[in-house]
Amino acid sequence: MANNLLAGKVGIISGALNEKSIAWKVAQRAHAEGARFVLTNAPLAMRMGEINKLSEECNAPIIPADATSVEDLEKLFTGAQEQLGGKLDFMLHSIGMSPNIRKGKNYGELNYQWFQQTIDISALSFHKMLAVAEKQDAFNEWGSVVALSYIAAQRAFLDYTDMTQAKAMLESIARSYGQRLGKLKKVRVNTVSQSPTKTTAGAGISGFDAFYEFADKMSPLGNAPAEACADYCISLFSDLTRYVTMQNLMHDGGFSTTGISQEMADLMEKANG
User: Fold this and answer.
1) Residue 25 assigned as binding residue
2) Is 95 annotated as a binding residue?
3) Half-sphere exposure of 203 (CA within 13 A, CB side)
4) What percentage of the chain carries pLDDT values higher than 70?
């Protein structure tokens, strides 16, 4: 049910690949809540995905940009302000990729050049986007920036390998830039640590199904679906959360603060029986 929470607001949504993407769901909800926005993704991802379909549905222009390229990002922010007729009120960073994970490298065998690419794509791109936005004075006061993270930034998870470090850096950048942009423009910057979600990126991680089932059995509310994550992001873009900034917000059905659930205890007893 729409409540016009983003009526009159404009922004940038990155990372929508297909209907499974959290960014795709965020775009749909933002559109339903009255926002106008530009969609962006890397040219390669755009060729692999279905972003044109989303563009038509949301009446949202597309500006391709490699988020690791400052030159591309300068064109993105300039173009977005031109297309939308002014400064921005919100931005979603939903960008992450690990060549090491794609190539099946375990943590002890990481290719360090690929590791640097993981960091650049999944974390430094966030700093670059915020730095370009600051230089262009692209945000209105009381704007909101959200980046998507995962609890592996704080805990060790098998097979998440170098994305663990990338997410930790992403959250650190949110804190540092949240302090900076808060003082400069009252812009808030947060990360949302989402439950394991059956996206194209998630499915590429070895053992993902085990991650998903374990988290679902541990969480009192179960795993949060992509649609619920989109709702949460919309609340963070809205004026209802003006004083929330520099936070890593857990959106995981209670997984992060559950020691053990009855379901897991029952499974362990059954296995030992």
Assistant:
1) no
2) yes
3) 5
4) 96
